Amino acid sequence: MSRRVGRRDFLRAGVAAGALALLPRGAPAAEPLVVATFPGTWNEAHRDVLAPYFRKKTGADVIQTIMLATDQVAKLEAAHGKPPFDVAIMDEGPLLDAVKAGVLEKYPVEKSPNYKDLVPAFQDPWGPKISLQVIGIGFNPKKIKERPKSWNDLFNPAYKGRVGLTALNSTLGMAFMVDLAKTRGGGESDIEPAFKALKELLPSVGAISANLGAHAALFQQEQIDIAPYNFNFVQTLKEKGVDIDFATLDTGIPAWRTSLHVVKNAVQPDLAVQYIDAHISPEVQEDMERSPYWVIPTNRKVPLKGEIVKQVAKSQDDLAKLKYQDWVKINQHRSEWIERFNRDIKL
Amino acid sequence: MTAAPAADGPEWRLLLPLGAFFVLFFAAPLIVLLLVSLSDGLALNAFSLTHYARFLSDSFSLSILVDTLALGAKATAVCLLFGLPVAWVCVHASPRLRSLLLFLVILPILTSVVVRTFAWIVILGQQGILNKTFLSLGLIDAPLRLLFSEVGVVMVLAQVQMPLMVLPLITTLQRIDPNLADASRALGAGHWRTFRRVILPLWLPGLVAGCILVFAACTTAFVTQTLIGGARLVYMPLYIYQQAAGANNWPFAAAMSVLLMISVLLVVYLLNLCGRSRWATRHG
Predict the structure, then answer these.
(1) What pLDDT, on a 0 to 100 scale, did the predictor assign at position A192?
(2) What is the pTM of this model?
(3) Measured between CA atoms, how close is A168 to chain B, in angstroms?
(4) Are residues A183 and A166 in the same domain?
(5) Residues of A with Cβ-Cβ distance to B118 under 8 angstroms
(6) Could you count the other beta carbons within 10 Å of the beta carbon of residue A18?
(7) Which pLDDT score is estimated for A1?
(8) A277, A112 in Cβ contact below 8 A?
(9) How far apart are CA A188 and CA B228, in angstroms?
(10) N- to C-terminal Cα separation, chain A
(11) Of the candidate ranges A99-113, B79-93, B135-149, the one whose mean pLDDT is the lowest
(12) DSSP H or E run through A163
């Protein structure tokens, strides 16, 4: 109690504490790897399966930052070469944006022993495809007795007011519109049929979620009974006790690939590669292919199982043949379509 | 004790840390925002007013701005309607009841806005608490559409922002000398006339302060607007986000941010003006 803190000490300590908080992120040895992950099941799978495996293997720590792909591209672009994270996670559309914006590093294949076990469709010079998202129709089996078969079922007058959609800023929304166009004579270069169908569908629509997180709440709160949805999100909700089932489409199963990337000027580029390689390792992929994650594995050494085999595909080679979309073409019009969709749906 | 003018003594230096903080983290980003809104990209070259022109000449964009300001006005009105009686009761209650009421008023601030908003989803949904209660009471035949409706957004905003209205109301009402009301009544004015001619003018600064806070908070409440409103009710914050992150159109998003800021400041200025002028005419 004898030593009093003088005014100058106090000021110095205060200034030091303030300055510390403002210091930019450096790269001392103990600096953890910062990785981006998607909200929802993805961040749980990464936190509970991938991060522990990576920690055990490298001794390095991982910090997650939860962000949509479009937000990641925006942040990386705004950061001007001082990226706030080392590993990015992308869907096909935003990936093209990221490459165009020059915020990613080419993936050093030679440093990634598991890369060769991916089917060619899941290899990419910018970074391996770690999984894929399959879309179809999520529906409440208690309310909808007849299993949906195609997007046409959304137009069934019996479901008026119970149909859900999601805004086009998510890949699900965009992929749905493109596939809707394809089933009605259009496609990536001709979206018109989809917008025409949307006009027809709107009176039946009960809710349109502004983002994917809110999409789950629509089913949980029984605000809607039928909506385009991702295969693995439906499985997760089902296991949480929500009345929901997944139906694949007769018109072909649309899918897109999700990939991990080393960010340009990453603080921890080597750890980033090890983290990504861990994600495509048979151990991690096998561990993620289970309740409650149901992440579809892309490594040939991991057998497909459960609902995936029943509804989607028997092997990775089958997965490679799903109905993928041409995101180079989609990206040319993406912002225009988002804008148009928002205008068409506004109340 | 006479306070020396701040500029004469060394005291003004106490403002330096906050001043520096403001310049660095508030003024500087604002200038960057303004520059981006005038440029054709993040590289900041080729300045022009095209983004402002595009917004102001587009009826869809303008309708979003109008909707946003109207939303703020509606939520502020609801806050005022419910806040005035609460503040009145709070001030005139016994000390113990008053602290309980104050605690209840502040309670909403103590939980995260995201958590509160999700709780409202459970309350407002088709199978939510409200609809189930109304249905079982036989008040309605089919579930009301509360979630993803403007009524729902106004309700939730009013609850979430209520403390911002009630707290300034309470502090100003407390400072009004109770003798004034007694004097007014002794001179023959009834309760209503006393309230209208004596209390209300004195209460006006608190009222205006509350309205300003609630209005500014409601027009920019991204989380509540998006989660309760859904994608079909577009307000400026969501629209700005869509343009920036979704469409990667930073300059347009920046221009919209500047326009939203100007419109909100304009409303705040008008509110302030109306508070002051009445104050001045009656008590100047």
Answers:
(1) 96
(2) 0.81
(3) 9
(4) yes
(5) 217
(6) 11
(7) 41
(8) yes
(9) 32
(10) 67
(11) B135-149
(12) strand A163-166
**Could you tell me the domains of chain B?**
59-283 (1.10.3720.10)
Q: Has residue A319 been placed in a domain?
A: no
Write the residue in B42, B121, B232 that is nearest to A345 by C-beta.
Answer: B232
State residue A136 phi and psi, 5-degree precision.
-165, -145
Among the partner residues A73, A77, A221, nearest to B42 by beta-carbon distance: A77
> Are A218 and A336 part of one and the same domain?
yes
DSSP state of A55: H
User: Residue A139 maps to which CATH number?
Assistant: 3.40.190.10
Q: Mean pLDDT throughout A314-331?
A: 93
The answer to whether the CB atoms of A339 and B247 lie below 8 A apart is yes
Distance between CA atoms of residues A162 and A154, nearest Å = 9
Same domain, A72 and A208: no
Nearest C-alpha of chain B: how many angstroms from A268? 26
Asked if the structure places residue A11 within a domain, the reply is no
Q: Are residues A112 and A142 in the same domain?
A: no
Chain A residues lying within 8 Å of B121, measured CB to CB: 217, 221
Which burial class, exposed, middle or buried, applies to A13 when counting CB atoms under 10 A from its CB (0-12, 13-18, 19+)? exposed
**How many structural domains does chain A have?**
2
Note down the domain range covering A334: 133-255+326-345
The reply to whether residue A68 touches residue B121, judged by beta carbons under 8 angstroms, is no
Tell me: do A116 and A220 sit in the same domain: no
In a domain, A164, yes or no: yes
Tell me how far apart the alpha carbons of residues B85 and B71 are, in angstroms, rounded to a whole number: 22
Contact partners, residue B100, CB within 8 Å, separation at least 6:
none
What does the alpha-carbon distance between residue B248 and residue A73 come to, in Å, rounded to a whole number? 9
Cα A125 from Cα A123, distance rounded (Å): 7
Give A213-242 pLDDT, tens digit per residue: 788 888 988 889 999 999 988 998 999 899
Specify the 3-state DSSP secondary structure of A81: coil
Q: Does A166 touch chain B (CB under 8 A)?
A: yes
Instruction: Tally Cβ neighbours within 10 Å of residue A224.
Output: 25
Residue A200 lies in a domain: yes
Mark whether A228 and A266 lie in a shared domain: no
Q: Is the pLDDT of residue A202 over 60?
A: yes
Chain A (187-216) residues lying within 8 Å, Cβ to Cβ, of chain B: 206-211, 214
**Rounded Cα–Cα distance for residues B196 and B190 (Å):** 10
Instruction: Answer yes or no: do A148 and A237 share one domain.
Output: yes
> Is A124 in the same domain as A174?
no
Mutate to test the interface with B, among A172, A215, A223, A333 (most CBs of B within 10 A): A223
CA distance A277 to A260: 9
Shortest CA distance to A73 belongs to which of A51, A103, A44? A103
Q: CB A347 to CB B232 under 8 A?
A: yes
